[in-house]
Amino acid sequence: METPGSQSSLHRANLERVVRAVRMAGSLTQAEIARSTGLSAATVSNIVRELKDGGTVDVTPTSSGGRRARSVSLSGNAGIVVGVDFGHTHLRVAIGNLAHRVLAEEAEPLDVDASATQGLDRAEHLVRSLLAQTGISREKIVGVGLGVPGPIDVESGVLGSTAILPGWAGTNPRDDLAGRLGVPVHVDNDANLGALGELVWGAGRGAADLAYIKVASGVGAGLVINGRIYRGPGGTAGEIGHITLDEAGPVCRCGNRGCLETFTAARYVLPLLHSAHGPDLTVARMVELAREGDPGCRRVISDVGRHIGSGVANLCNLLNPSRVVLGGDLADSGELVLAPIRESVSRYAIPSAARRLEVVPSALGGRAEVLGALALVLSEMGDSSLLDEPRPADAPAPV
């Protein structure tokens, strides 16, 4: 026979299960909450009513399967999350609420030679600027997600030596930004955040096992296994760019020869087209020219796709993902790059793994990483504070 104490503990656990399900999904119907938590429909109905009365969730009419339903999401007053994404040439910042609604977003170019201090100065300025624009106080921030282009030790927050940004290796941008903003900061590499962004908002929705391949100044993969990012004990899982394709190939920045990155990353492939299109050619412009029919650009993109496909085939043989999402500017070339990827996968992967694999372009484009930074905070934050803290009646107006 259960004691009042154990019943109270069970009730609290059920409250947290419902809040966690809604927090991760953004919004769910009560029937979906029941399926995802294993709780009965009656229990879910009572808990949702309690959470609504306490100001923790909002409930709005919707439809599901042609029937009337109620959509449950975390209250707009429950707090906000901030995403910061550093790329090789850009900085992007976004603010969102716990209902997965983006309230403000801004991007600006980033000098590749800027120091970590200079980059974080700009990030701090953008965060404070967006808070001012939305009228949200810093005290509402639950946490900040930070994305950096390179391997990072998620325990210590220290950026590895093969980071794309010069001068950032060995720095701790997580602790630096946390000290500047006075809020918790969660850090991960950009490929992992791209995977999270696509998993929550984009082309990865509904897939429990996927790989997000980002091809830009470097090449990385964000790996999702059983719905969770897999980082490995040192945080370097997914460094697909350093798979060896040719032991006698070009020297890579990691010190090895013939890495996948040396056949696919922008810094290696764009010079192949400089004689025809000049030294200022970008990947976006190469893709545009290829879509217009330029034979050189089409050939380069096709070759890049074949090489990426070799790396994806290795992933298939090792991890057997159900979906691969291609990110970065190269994804805009569509079937010009996707078809060669699929061809290489079909050739080099185990047939049973290749048959089950979908290869699709990113649905979020250049926003995947910053939205993934928001999702990182949503996945790492706890649920107790959402149940314990009082909710003010006035919500900030979204932009």
Question: SSE layout and pairings?
Answer:
Elements: H1 4-25, E1 27-29, H2 30-37, H3 41-53, E2 57-64, E3 67-74, E4 80-86, E5 90-97, E6 102-109, H4 116-134, E7 141-148, H5 173-181, E8 185-189, H6 190-201, E9 210-215, E10 219-225, E11 228-230, H7 261-264, H8 266-269, H9 274-277, H10 283-291, H11 295-319, E12 323-327, H12 335-348, H13 351-355, E13 358-361, H14 368-380, H15 384-388
Parallel strand pairs: 4-7, 7-8, 9-12, 12-13
Antiparallel strand pairs: 1-3, 2-3, 4-5, 5-6, 9-10, 10-11
Helix pairs in contact: 2-3, 4-5, 6-14, 10-11, 11-12
Describe this structure in words.
The chain is an alpha/beta fold. It contains 15 helices and 13 strands. A 5-stranded mixed sheet has the order 6-5-4-7-8, sandwiched between helices. Strands 11-10-9-12-13 form a 5-stranded mixed sheet, with helices on both faces. Helix 10 crosses helix 11 (295-319) and helix 11 (295-319) crosses helix 12. The protein is globular and about 70 Å long.
